[in-house]
Design a protein that fits this description.
This protein has 373 residues and is an alpha+beta fold. Helix content is 31%, strand content 27%.
Length: 373
Amino acid sequence: MSPTPDPLALFLELAAIPSPPGRERAVADRVCEELGALGLEVVEDNAATRIDGETGNLLVRVEPTGEGGLPIFLCAHLDTVKPEGSIEPYVEDGHVRNAGRTILGADNKAAVVVMIEAIRRVLVEKRAHAGIELVLTPREEAGCDGAKAFDVGSLQAPLGFVFDHAAPIGDVVGAAPYQTTMDVTFTGRAAHAGIVPEEGCSAIAAAAKAVAELRLGRLNSETTANVGLISGGTARNIIPDRCSLIAEARSLSEATLLQLVGEMTDSFTFAAAMTECAVETKLEEKYHGYRFDEADPIVRLGFAALEDAGLSPRLVDCGGGADANVFNSRGVPCLNLANGMAHVHTPDEEIAVRDLDRMVDVTLALIERARAA
């Protein structure tokens, strides 16, 4: 078995490799090299051909050392949101940050490194276990595309754990939202803005009127809505005949989300009619929400492992989705654990070196608890 870098060194190396959604090949190859050095076989599926990417889902299986116990899978994603500059990880005051003033990529490479290190220790220290599977997905940041393309029937484990919540270690996601995205296109009529503006119908005006009527931001403790991008027009002196926007809505309540999406699409339709424009709205259900409580077996297992690692677990609601949403929607219980990363998706993203080590301890505790289950 070849030497393996310590978790911090491996994290610094992986973080420095850009891997926006659909472009995870370089980091996937490095991860495969690392797992291969541990004597493990990495199986890559054909998801890349179905999700407009260059990398499929990676599946690694560590066979159980004995009978009994509960096999588990561990899941992390290989991609990050698109970096807007260079990634130059460095360590300062016990934290890893990026000198390049863009994302660091702790979301979710910190989890990748932790899981590899935990498996390495299981193998090197010959720890007994009931079976461990590692699932590494692409294009999670694009809407959990890799997990959606993954065949859950290939898993031997009946339940799993994702480390993809930006919060202090010990937080456990008890509820995650449903999400619907909206791609909206307003079509008006072009005209010269100075000579015959009355002959035009402004698609930008239609979009502006719609957005002004929307309820955006945090609507209540369970629900949010956002317009993330608007584009349209061709020149300063032309009434724009086309304007598009992309929006989203999320809620822990499916019924509330359906009502909100209906309200938003009605606003688009009304604004188009008032400005004599046409509108086309394309809706997509990105992922389904889920809810656990402390009595659920997977939560009890997660809580027990966190306590074994010296932590105080608590169940929290989360406004973001993760691969756990996909597994739960397919009937495979999957619990999302916070791993200490902070300020994700921003230039201030960071993670404490100590939290990398603590999450290795949590992972080993999960494996031991599952063995004894």
